[in-house]
Amino acid sequence: MKRTKVPSEITGKVWKIEAKPGDKVAEDEPIIILESMKMEIPVSAPVDCTVVEILVAEGDTVAEGQTVAIIES
Amino acid sequence: MAYEKQLEDLAAREAKARAMGSPKRLAERKAAGILNARERAALLFDPGTLDEVGLLAQSTRPDMHGKTPADGVVSGFGRIGGRLAGANVADFTTYGSSSAEVHGKKQGYVRLACEKNGLPLIYLNECAGGRIPDIMGAAGIGRAGEGGRYTRRRSSPVLAACLGLTYGGGAFACINSDLVVMRKGAVLAVSSQMTTSVAIGEESDPQNLGGWRLHTETTGYVDAAVDTDEEAIAWIKRALGYLPDHANALTAPAPFDDEARSDALLDIVPESRAKTYDMRKAIAAIADAGSVLPVKDRYAKVAVTALARIKGRAVGIIATNPMFKGGALDPDSCGKIASFIVLCDSFNLPIVFLADTPGFLVGLESEKRGLPGKIMNFMAALELSTVPKIALVLRKSFGQAYLNMGAGRSDATAVWAGSEISFMDPAVAVNIVYAVKKDDDPARFEELVKAVSKDTSAYDLAAPFMAQAVIDPRDTRAYLANQLDIFSRRLTGGIGEHRLADWPPAI
Question: What is the separation, in whole angstroms, between the first and last Cα of chain A?
Fold first, then answer.
């Protein structure tokens, strides 16, 4: 099993956390949804995976490139 | 029989050349499921159509005499789906298909013949770099530059497959091509990890140095990655199907099953413009079934660039994808779009713009990466292009991005009913102009959003005839097909001015 850091691709505010540690998430499915540019922008799983850790909370501001979750695949 | 001995001699020489390089290396490739040069050439061209040049060419160095069959490259002309084309197919078993005098002369001969006669050119590449010792010393590198030419005028399409270790001249040939496909496991780099480890003391895995992930996701130099040689050659053939033989010709139309209305768009595109969706699904509902070929799908995903057909006509589609970064165009997506405009404009492919964007992605990261310059390069490519262009806004398009996505600069501009168009998103404008945030005073915020949203509808663009039509989303396909019929005629029969033909090759 390989652990991977999932970065935010955009600066924004964490609007909703869609998956919790232990959840299985398919490739391109959202783990977290950010609010940025007045859009709801998902941070999606890069591959089929299990969520290991969520590193942000709803309402947090995240920067582009910041790790927001750790997954295992 | 007259000439019997001479013909026996010719046959023996040809057989030796066709046997390629080291039998051990050929066997290793076979065991690994990797095709050799002659198998690749056979797969590329229609059976029996390869007219090979330089089969009996070899290194001019006395010490290499008889050791470099065809000097490491299968070159020639043949038919691909009935169309004449040229090809240079690297034979890695002969000195790594390394760059050397005769090797280069053969490739240049085919390239020039394709340019002069309007034939597509295909590279199936592997290359160990410059051949040693040929390239060593002052005269060696001097000779490498003689007769070489790197720039091209995009007079006929060039497609490349990177199918193995591809360094130096082989890598540069890929970069100078219009479209590039890569077999996973291949490497495209200036020099190998052995050279980099000595030259700068950097140890690097070849895949990190120039593998498919690097080039499809980070550099954008590779347009698609596939698993096998066979898939790479099939991709080349498919991509060639969207392109004409040369810049003064049109792509042949293809048969299609007509669907008058793109009804699925109402389900694919959420009504709320804050919701994201995958624009690629919308494109699939607009284009002819099964006709979409993504280009650089894994790079700068905010922008979708794809070759496709609409009612049989080959087109280039440029779209923003709300699924990534909300559809806000970032610096990389600008370069991706500009290079795709160059491709379309060079080969007379009309462009369809599909905009659903909150604007350019502002912020520190974008500025550090040169967003203003990238926006202007994108705009330069757009304004210099002369192919037919149709711009359509789906849901929203704000700010400079509205202009860059072709609106008002195309042959026709249209907007979906319900779309919003303005300098910036009304909610952002309220923050900036009135310094009122939603969390601080929700009622006042809503009131101001309503006020700022005035005059931002599709009808506010249609009234001053800045859009030629406001359309029902379900009519998108029919609308685009009609506009393409009207604006693809031109007095030149659809051949553009090709003012971007000299545009630099890389993003």
Answer: 6
Average pLDDT, chain B: 93
Give the number of domains in chain A: 1
pLDDT tens digits along B294-350: 999 999 999 999 999 999 999 999 999 999 999 999 999 999 999 999 999 999 999
- A39/B322 CB distance under 8 A: yes
ipTM above 0.95, yes or no: no
Contact assessment for residue A46 and residue A63, using Cβ atoms and an 8 Å cutoff: no
Q: Is residue B192 part of a domain?
A: yes
Q: Is B354 helix (H, G, I), strand (E, B) or coil?
A: strand
How far A21 CA sits from the closest chain B CA (Å)?
A: 24
Structural domain of B327: 265-419+457-487
B96, part of any domain:
yes
Task: Answer yes or no: is B68 within a domain.
Answer: yes
Q: How many CB atoms lie within 10 A of CB B263?
A: 13
Please tell me whether residues B180 and B41 are part of one structural domain.
yes
Domain containing residue A18: CATH number: 2.40.50.100
Residues of B in contact with A65 (CB under 8 A): 365
Instruction: Encode pLDDT of B216-230 as tens digits.
Output: 999 999 999 999 999
Q: How confident is the model over A41-50, as pLDDT tens digits?
A: 889 898 899 9
DSSP B246-271: STTS-PPP------S--TTHHHHS-S
